[in-house]
Amino acid sequence: MEIWINPACSKCRSAIGLLDAEGAEYTVRRYLEDVPSEDEIREVLTRLGLEPWDITRTQEAAAKELGLKDWARDDASRDRWVTALAEHPELIQRPIITADDGTAVVGRTDEAVRDALSR
Fold first, then answer.
1. Known catalytic residue: 12?
2. CA distance 110 to 88
3. Entry pTM
4. Average pLDDT by consecutive 10-residue portion of the chain (119 residues)?
5. Contact between residue 95 and residue 108 where contact means Cβ atoms under 8 Å apart
6. Which of 3, 7, 8, 9 is catalytic?
7. Are 57 and 63 in contact (CB under 8 A)?
8. What are phi and psi of 50, to 5 degrees?
């Protein structure tokens, strides 16, 4: 199990606290420092069953600078979104937990973190 975190994020700290309380074995990836490649982002999106715009933090300054709210959300635009996430990792929703069964969850709630633990 791997968890993508920003240590400054309270949701990330909460998720790690729950993983620790449950005795889970996991690897921490500080994704702002160890930035995921476009291929890694695509893989996580597949595992999540989501599209890149579904995991984009659209209220971040970079999102506003890029004008993301006006970008199309369709198959033809998917690569553009993935590139934006790779170039501006602060736009990636957090924390993301990759589960042992090959799936992933956005662990913003205790329920989502427990879901990852049960897989």
1. no
2. 27
3. 0.94
4. 96 96 96 97 97 96 96 97 98 95 95 92
5. yes
6. 9
7. yes
8. -125, 170
